[in-house]
Design brief:
- Helices cover about 55% and strands about 20% of the residues.
- With about 375 residues, it is an alpha+beta fold.
- It has 3 domains: about 170 residues; about 50 residues, SH3 type barrels (Roll), CATH 2.30.30.60; about 80 residues, 2-Layer Sandwich (Alpha-Beta Plaits).
- The strands form 4 sheets. It has a 5-stranded antiparallel beta sheet with strand order 6-5-4-3-7. It has a 3-stranded antiparallel beta sheet with strand order 8-10-9.
- A hairpin with a 4-residue loop joins β9 and β10.
- α3 packs antiparallel against α4.
């Protein structure tokens, strides 16, 4: 009697076939849960014994899609053992392909995101990690586009026509949004090459300011006057950028001139005076001071020193102190600074030799 009952047929399948399908589902789900619990417990034990901490995020990335694929596989095996209508069989196969494709896309996109973020964290570049957040939608769109083509191909569609239409449409969009795409690729170049970062003080052509935001199309600077400067990323990548933020110290070079009437003994002591004044200043490293050249109206000295800071205001304050100290030291030693002069010789009509006459001509 029980055997005859199990051989009864409903919708082209016996009760035994339905029972086997249900048993496959229940047994398969139970086995999946058991294996998952066993693997998790094993990983926890290994994690406690090992000195390295296992990344829970990485475990979730691998475990979730594998468990979902196992569910889909068990369900597909259980249902395909039944004698189904061809339409239902086709629907079941399509559903399995769709589920597998979606799970694979999610797994690959999450794994790629995890690997990139892990690489950025190892480098310790927090700003680049924050900028990478803007690229995530594009990265996911690429995975979904490839997955959609793969899905259509497995569902029996002619993807050659789809790819051709997408190529023509993409070409039209590319021509229409050529400027936007150029700025987008320039943004990729800025994010990956890092010529500057948030908070850096840069000079781009005639524009000077601090970087406040790096966007997909434009970069925003705050100028010295306080206004916002919005520059297209294409203009930035095509320009010469001077970034002052990596600078640890400033090199300062200046010249000063004394008159030609200055005695030789004073000319020889001027480099020592300059060196002593600079060495008495804080946060300064003296480099050199030399009698460098003969000018049109002055004897020129070239001075070089380093300010052990990138602060421009501090460098100007120190230069001001040096200038005032030099002015005072030269005044005490009666050393005159040179200013533009000319000497004119007048020829006398008398038979006497020419007499030079100094005339001071101020030029602006």
């Amino acid at each position: 009697m029980p055997v005859e009952f199990l051989t009864q047929s409903f919708f082209y399948n016996t009760l035994a076939a339905y029972g086997l399908a249900i048993a496959t589902l229940v047994g398969g789900f139970f086995l999946i849960h058991a294996v998952r619990a066993l693997v998790i417990s094993t990983l926890k034990r290994l994690n406690q014994r090992s000195q390295k901490t296992l990344d829970s995020r990485l475990v979730q990335i691998f475990s979730r899609p594998l468990v979902r694929l196992a569910y889909v596989g068990v369900s597909y095996i259980a249902l395909t053992n039944l004698n189904l209508h061809p339409i239902l069989t086709q629907i079941l196969q399509s559903f399995a392909v769709i589920c597998t494709t979606v799970i694979g896309i999610l797994f690959l996109s999450q794994l790629a995101e995890y690997l990139v973020r892990s690489y950025l964290l190892k480098r310790g570049d927090v700003e680049l990690e924050q900028s990478f957040g803007a690229l995530l939608p594009i990265l996911r769109a690429v995975f979904w586009a490839v997955g959609a083509v793969f899905l259509l191909d497995n569902l029996g569609f002619d993807i050659s026509a789809v790819v051709a239409s997408l190529g023509i449409g993409g070409l039209a969009i590319a021509f229409a949004a050529q400027g936007i795409l150029q700025d987008l690729f320039s943004y990729f170049s800025i994010v990956l090459d890092r010529p500057f970062g948030i908070g850096d003080f840069i000079i781009v052509g005639d524009f000077v300011g601090t970087v406040e935001q790096i966007g997909i199309k434009t970069t925003r600077l705050k100028s010295l006057n306080g206004e916002a400067l919005i520059i297209a990323n294409t203009d930035l990548t095509g320009s010469r950028i001077r970034n002052f933020s990596p600078m640890k110290r400033r090199r300062v070079a200046f010249t000063l001139g004394v008159t030609y009437e200055t005695p030789q003994e004073k000319l020889e002591v001027i480099p020592t005076i300059i060196r002593d004044i600079i060495n008495h200043q804080e946060q300064i490293t003296f480099d050199r001071a030399h009698f460098a050249s003969y000018g049109d109206f002055s004897l020129n000295y070239e001075v070089v020193y380093y300010v052990e800071s990138s602060d421009y205001t501090l460098a100007m304050d120190l230069q001001q102190r040096i200038n005032l100290a030099l002015f005072e030291a030269f005044a005490q030693r009666e050393i005159e600074f040179a200013y533009p002069t000319q000497v004119t010789y007048l020829q006398s009509t008398q038979p006497n030799p020419p007499i030079p006459m100094d005339t001071m001509t101020h030029t602006s």
